[in-house]
Task: structure prediction
Amino acid sequence: MRKLNIIIHLLVLLLCVVIIASCIKTDDYDLPDVLLSEPEIPLENITTFKTIKSLYEQAVNGGNSTVVIQSENDLYIEGFVVSSDKSGNFFEELIIQNKTDGSDPDNDPRLGFCVLVNVSSLSDTFQFGQKVYVKMNGLTIGETSGTICIGKGDAAKLEQIQASEFKAIILRSHEVSAITPKLVSLENLTKNDQNTLIRLENMQLNRFELGATFASESFDEFDGFRVLESCDSGISMMMQTSTYSDFKSLIVPQENGSVTGVYSRDYGDDFNVLIVNSSTDVAFDNPNRCDPLELDCGLSETYGTGNVLLEEFESQKNNKPVEIHGWTNHIEAGTQAWEGYSSTSSNASLGRSARFQSASSGDVSNIGWLITPSINLDEHEGETLRFKTSNSLADSSFMEVLYSQNWDGTEAGVTQATWGVLSAAYVVKDSDSFVPWFNSGVVDLSCETGTMHIAFKYTGGGQESFDGVYELDDIRIDYVE
Result:
């Protein structure tokens, strides 16, 4: 009997070992990181992100859209994962950058790539901050939605790395590093910052979007876009959130603070976006918002037949600063001013228009004001404002319609005066098409009294991420006779 019990115990023990062993996945990509074998890659086989990017740029300069990496020896890049699909805001891609610390100027510029992989739940395999080695032999470099990506394909197209092969191409290190995002201002972002982790401070959700969810509004399709604005410069950027993310129904925090995410472009490559890994990356916890003074009498259904001001810029000279009696064309920063412009291209002007263009200016910052003569709101009834705007790839530059009732009329006094926003006026957005012109709406001014100046203010710069073009025309101030 004793011998039988021993045998039974041994059988039970053996069965437990078998059960435990069957619960452990044998694929080394599913084992805890502590059991990973560090990839043994000779240093001479590792190349840089900069080299890979240069090969792609050479191919583009030669008229190609992609480049296939060819090497006699195994060739790798070493990077760190800065994306996570755990919350559903990234899908079938890894974002990797070449440095861990964005706070050290000596480590900049960091460079990043997206890696296209036909696998979901990549965060189960690749942790945020994990070092990876990507075997580049035979891989294709190209652009997806305006950012440089790594995948498979040929000289004409870029495709995903397939599930059956990605484990042999993307090798995990057991090293998981803390990633320090680059603290940067919106106006200083460049294309080198794409596909890297950045942090923006003193930011807030635009006041017209307070109460909005990340991506579950009725108009959100595939992605939700919310306008984040800088309290330091007034510059804005779209935050992009997938409608498949698990935080899409959360309300975007309505206070002020910092936000951390991957700097990228929208699907159509029309404007810059920030993509957060989760809702916790939006740390808006300062109740002191920086909303501007604003005048909002609403929109009027009609406008009067009397006219106080009409300007169509037909008398202006192309590419010369606007000069109109009673108007002020003030350069606050940089070397560019509002100029006359005429074009019959796909983004045609309305005859001749006023245009502000900072591209190729060479200026870090361009700020220009075009200010109307004074308007006495006590002389008439039912005053309204109308105008039209268009842009050519705004690239985060922007135009505002402002008003002041204490400007002294001098250029020196422009920045000393109190300026508020005419918030009912519609100005063409960065996300709008660059072909049509957009009406401002009939902006009601009749709820205000006294004397007012109206200003059209452009903010941009000579950098490629900030050098958009805005056009302005058909400015009318009418009243009821």
About this structure: Residues 115 and 150 are 5 Å apart (CA to CA). Confidence is low (pLDDT under 50) at residues 1-34. The longest strand covers residues 381-392. The two ends are 115 Å apart (CA to CA).
